[in-house]
Amino acid sequence: MGNMKVAMRHGLELWVDLNLQRTWDAKLMQPWPFAPVAWVQADLVDDDNYRRENFLFGAFCSSYVTIHLQQLRLRGGKNLRGGTIIGFGVGVANEAELSFVTSVNQMNLNFLGYDVSEVAVRHGREFLNNLQQGKTSSVSSQLNAIHHAEIEQLCREDTFLPAENICIYAARFIQFLSREKMQQVMYHLGKFLRRTGRAVILVHPLPEKNPKVTWTNSSAYSLKELLEPTSEGLGGSVDALRQLDCLYYNQIYTGLTLQAR
Prior knowledge:
Elements: E1 3-9, E2 12-17, H1 18-28, H2 37-41, H3 47-76, E3 84-88, H4 100-106, E4 110-115, H5 118-133, E5 144-148, H6 151-156, E6 165-171, H7 179-192, E7 199-204, H8 223-234, E8 238-248, E9 251-260
Parallel strand pairs: 3-4, 3-6, 4-5, 6-7
Antiparallel strand pairs: 1-2, 7-9, 8-9
Helix pairs in contact: 3-4, 7-8
């Protein structure tokens, strides 16, 4: 089977590649889907350390995004009201990894997440529902949503270019794209950066920081490989700012804030 139209959301047709969806659904239903393959094969991964590693990784990602948004608010003030933060991939959708949504809403911003996996979307929506039912009155169900869609397709259709979208966040996402798709997505992220004040936040493993790591099911694209298509899409130079590192098992992930120079 080929692509399947999923639904209409805010006037957009959302499509999903069924083969890609099945692949990610199967992956996310495994016991430790993001643990390094070599560690799993060596019986070094268990439920406790996997839960701990993902909590720490998620806390790093959430803190990194929150700091950037706080800096944006200091510069943009009330002009940010009603803006939207776009999330590429929901991941494991744990409390730590999506906790920045609270900060997003406290700044009167919206959060829209997209994922090709029905499993990820279900987990993400459960998290948002639990957040809404909790004690944090600043979180509104009207401000947050997670959609089932193929992100690469939405990029090709320039879905994320409207002015209300002020930041795109992609943690542990780019590495799972083929080289061709990575270049296409990064090109469109460059187009996104053409509007002044926007940023793209990546949490990605750089090969120069992981010289001894073997990447079995993903690719650690270098900073140069990421920036070249982004600069092409922008039509100018792109800076990778605020580079901070996080250790996930034996892998080093780097937070990157991409902005037009």
